[in-house]
From TrEMBL:
InterPro entries: DUF3093 (IPR021443)
Keywords on record: Membrane, Transmembrane, Transmembrane helix
Protein name (record): Unannotated protein
UniProt entry tagged with the keyword Transmembrane: yes
Transmembrane regions listed in the UniProt entry: 14-35, 41-60
Length: 149
């Protein structure tokens, strides 16, 4: 993954929303109480700490970094050179839901997050690549589409 720096044309990091963290906080408390009641404090604390560690790991692995730098587009662990990008189209909520759902192409690269309501469809022109397009969630969809066009 490319790190953004002053030569970066576009950079965005998508992490879990506060509402998901709040829900998981309630779940952590519930898990603690579930194990504390029949067992003891030490066992419940151990299970809860393991669960919290798993959540932190899941948060780290599921974040989405989008970077455009030096003629390359990096999305998570995937990357593509800009010369293979045909066009990029900003998608509103309705368009993103449609292309992510009933109009989806199973061969497309999908880097979406359910809590992000806008995105970009990046059409590719690489004959050797069977991927027709990349679908990317972005809070800054217009800026990303402008950067890629």
């Amino acid at each position: 993954m490319a790190r953004s720096n002053r030569k970066t044309e576009f950079a965005e990091r998508i992490s879990w929303p506060v509402s998901l963290w709040a829900f998981l906080g309630v779940m952590v408390g519930s898990i603690f109480l579930t194990f504390w009641a029949p067992f003891n404090f030490l066992f419940a604390s151990t299970v809860t700490i393991v669960f919290i560690a798993a959540l932190i790991y899941a948060h780290y692995k599921s974040r989405l970094d989008i970077v455009v730098i030096n003629g390359w587009l990096y999305v998570g662990n995937a990357k593509i050179e800009m010369k293979y990008i045909k066009s990029a189209k900003e998608l509103n909520k309705k368009q993103l839901l449609k292309i992510r759902g009933p109009a989806a192409d199973p061969a497309a690269f999908n880097a979406t997050r359910y809590w992000i309501k806008t995105g970009v469809k990046v059409e590719l022109k690489d004959k050797a690549d069977p991927t027709p397009y990349w679908l990317i969630s972005s809070r800054k969809a217009k800026a990303l589409a402008d950067c890629l066009n």
